[in-house]
Prior knowledge:
The protein has 15 helices and twelve strands.
Amino acid sequence: MFGRGLPILLGAVVSLLAFGPGCATHLDRLQPVRDLYFANQLDTATAEIERLQKKHRREADVLALDQAMIDLAAGHPELAEQRLRKTRDQFDKLSEKSIAEGAASLLTDDTAIAYPGEDYEQVLVRVMLALTNLMNGGEDAGAYALQVTEKLEQLRTEREKLEVDERLKSEAYQQVALGPYVRAMLAEESPLTLDDAVRARVQVAEYAPGFESAQADLQRAKHEVPIPPGHGVLYVFALVGRGPVKEQVNAEATQAALLVADRIVSAVSPRGLPPTLAPVPIPRVRTSSVGPGRLQVRIDDQPSGFTETIVNVGQMAALQQRAREPEIIGRAVARRVTKKGIIYATKEGVDAGSWSAASLALNVVGIAWEATETADLRCWGLLPDRIQVYRVALPAGQHTLNLQPADGAGTWGQPASRTITIPEGRNVYVLGQFPDGKLIGELLCSEDR
């Protein structure tokens, strides 16, 4: 006799196999969108995202972030800002997972729950809100920039108990300099807020010691008029390179991961089952070397300088994922243990010897159940690898701006140009996306709004 427990378990696992994650991952589904975006086919990429959002609702929020990047490239910063703000609010809401969702993930995997965004994505949605708002009037850019700093401080506090090296935690959650950089450049437009500009420039130099322009910017803020008479200031923001994505790897349980798993298992199971030491599937950040090292900036056909990295997106994503890897492995181990525990408990409830048909069936069910596990590869797939900036004061009036990919050997790829008008005593902001050797979409300018 199999007893009543076996048919119930078989039915539950069959349901999970039927409705759980398939063979295709989020990254597999996203790749056509990435290919279309890199090929500058923005309308077709939008149509593909809309199709995916209808079919895969648990991926809708993160796909909205990719759509925001396409909106921005297509010259619609107002749409991009709306999507980014909505997703930011949704991520904040989902940061505290419900008990029901937590239980569901133990019976399947992390793809069974709504996606709350990785730590770096929660920070970068605020970074992109600040930049997007600059292209959309700029009234809220300072507030968004302040949120960047506040969010990272919150995450640093929440991750203090991560079972990793203290140096890794410090590097992974160090402050992002773009927040105070935006606040500084906004403050420099008014003589009444120059003290605020100095304080923000000090923070930029502290947060990004490798940002070469930081010291020159600080000295200018302290000792010079930020915007000379008869001039305005041009800020070029460049989204450079192809950003991080996730790939699935099999990881062995470390001591730190087993501690995490033990806490999870103890909270949900009365059985003190020993964690399995078999490798488990987890996501790992993969960065890319594709794309220019920087952009050469030419003004009125004369070389002016090069953009400089102020946010290394790929590095931040990889470091934060490394810092959280024991937690991620621990959850995967806890899932494996929970599933084995249910199988063992069901065996105890049926009249079956170790070699009986029931036991063999349960073993097959257990193997199939574990085989449904996949790593959660949902991610913001159209992020840049680096966010770069260049500042130059220019005489008020009309100028021609030219941006071209460059590296140590010189310029390459396709240049992008546009006409800009510099008003006296004010800042003008230009933003472009260069995942490889050409501009995607168009160069946006704040003066267009």
